[in-house]
Amino acid sequence: MRISLQKNIAEVYGSVPFISIIDGNSGNRRYPCSSKILLKATFQKPNLLNSSPACTNISQFGNNMLKIDLRLSATIHGFSFHIGDSKTNNGLRYHSAIQKNDAQFYFLGYSSLLYGSSKCSSSMYKGLAGLLNKNVTTITIYVGNEFIRVTNNNGYIYDVCSSCLFALNGQPDSEGPANEEIYIGINRPISELYQSKAKGICSAEISWICS
What we know:
Blueprint: E1 2-4, E2 11-13, E3 19-25, E4 36-42, E5 65-77, E6 81-84, E7 104-108, E8 111-115, E9 125-127, E10 138-144, E11 147-152, E12 157-161, E13 181-186, E14 199-209
Antiparallel strand pairs: 1-2, 1-14, 3-4, 4-13, 5-10, 5-14, 6-7, 6-13, 7-8, 8-9, 10-11, 11-12
């Protein structure tokens, strides 16, 4: 699936099983790479409930690993990218809680922030210094159960496996239903509580990695 966000309306080419469009909004005609889209990717449970051994090897995830390739404009602003395993993720640490499994990762201007879920007693927080700057043109993100890897065209690599991250294997949730899905906001936060003026992602390609 390829998504172009350069015009006023997001243009989607092709489709991928288990990935659906939730909302597509117009952008600002004066600014290229500002059209917005919200998607949902539904994961399939891995054969083994304990996915920890797979955290060291992306190929072991099979079609339970999502790959997102982003092409950036020369200037990025606001919540240009946002992923989370709760539909109420809004980029704030304390959002409209309906789930404990609510990890999220997002770009805010040239900052990139990773928050663990509310179920962790000492909340996981990580700022990915060096991921975003004016020399970065492409970013690739891999998301799996309790796993994320982020790379850019300058050789930056960050990955982590933690039970505080995305709960995509039907893990129980004390506040709401179990998760098997990720929400993806491009040039917008997932839960758009206010009018987002984000811009900066010109195109995205989304696929499942299959072994």
